């Protein structure tokens, strides 16, 4: 092992605050490389190939890969900073030294490894790297931790709750942006304004986006989350059957410097649904089901999101009127309700033309309108989703 690689190996083995980084690539692969018998050229080459393979999977730059891993690390130092606590001087010193070591590692080149293995650089797979002062970058992120966040929330914008109660990133999250919409400016404007108030620390309302299917309710929530990512907004999607875990999720994000949209898509209840009371508690601000840095955005095709049968109006309930009011008033507990209706013919065709233009379809407008209207008639309705499906059929 050459002197440069060996010194880095010894420094990295003493990592304390960022110890979790050692368990992740690229450092895990690098440590394996260093611990491989240097007299076994094949094993050394395989260890190097594993390291480079991980770099390729993350964009091809060792330096940028290291930035991502370090910024995602959830350690005692970053947690303390997020809470406004002053770090122990020993911890502070360790952080500075470890970030300096990470900067040295992130600047390694294929030539350094070729020298270590005693081969020409042309004989091995290569990657990108550059000099980077990681300490300065880390300090900048700490100063704006309410925008950048830490842990998995530093790199991703949308999350889901897994069956084992892990908040995990949606790696292939919808990248839809505000410029992707046509029409519904007033409806989206209400959601945007509410989210802006949330970001600025002003009172923000739990929001119900209701109305016709395919009008863009879910897409609006996701577009808003994407638009406000750089301002510290993250989205956690819960299925309706996971609503009983609301207190658990709120506990997990409570105290986090970021702000979270708890997103519940396609919401509806039966009167006997156990999740009814949990959502009601969250909307009413129950301490066990609400975090100060969260707001609930839900979508539903129903204005009154609890299903009610005509038979519910009869029966033997002594206080039937009170019961009925409780069932139909859950939607009223949302501070903001935004109604999305089906587009009229004019707006529907406007959406179709806009999508056709974005996809470069060269079809005369008159012909496009006739075919789009025929498609909608076959589908049985006009909607933004119908317009997208029509364009997809042409593509």
Note down, in words, how this protein is organized.
The chain is α/β, with parallel strands linked by helices. The chain has 3 domains: 3-151, no CATH class; 169-340, P-loop containing nucleotide triphosphate hydrolases (Rossmann fold, 3-Layer(aba) Sandwich), CATH 3.40.50; 345-394. 48% of the residues lie in helices and 9% in strands. It has helices spanning 3-13, 19-22, 27-35, 41-57, 62-72, 76-82, 89-106, 110-117, 134-143, 145-148, 185-199, 217-227, 246-253, 275-283, 320-328, 345-358, 365-379, 384-394; strands spanning 158-161, 167-169, 207-211, 233-238, 259-264, 294-300, 336-340. Strands 2-1-4-5-6-3-7 form a 7-stranded mixed sheet. Strand 5, helix 14 and strand 6 (294-300) form a beta-alpha-beta unit. Helix 3 (27-35) packs antiparallel against helix 4, helix 16 crosses helix 17 and helix 16 (345-358) crosses helix 18 (384-394). The chain is globular. The mean pLDDT is 86.
Helix content: 40-55%
Gap between N and C termini: 56 Å
What is the mean predicted local confidence, pLDDT?
86
What is the name of the CATH superfamily of the largest domain? P-loop containing nucleotide triphosphate hydrolases
The total of beta strands comes to 7
Please tell me how large the radius of gyration is. 27 Å
User: Main sheet: which strands, in order across?
Assistant: 2-1-4-5-6-3-7
Summarize the biggest pleated sheet: 7 strands, mixed
**Tally of DSSP helical segments:** 18
Element-by-element helix/strand order: HHHHHHHHHHEEHEHEHEHEHEHHH
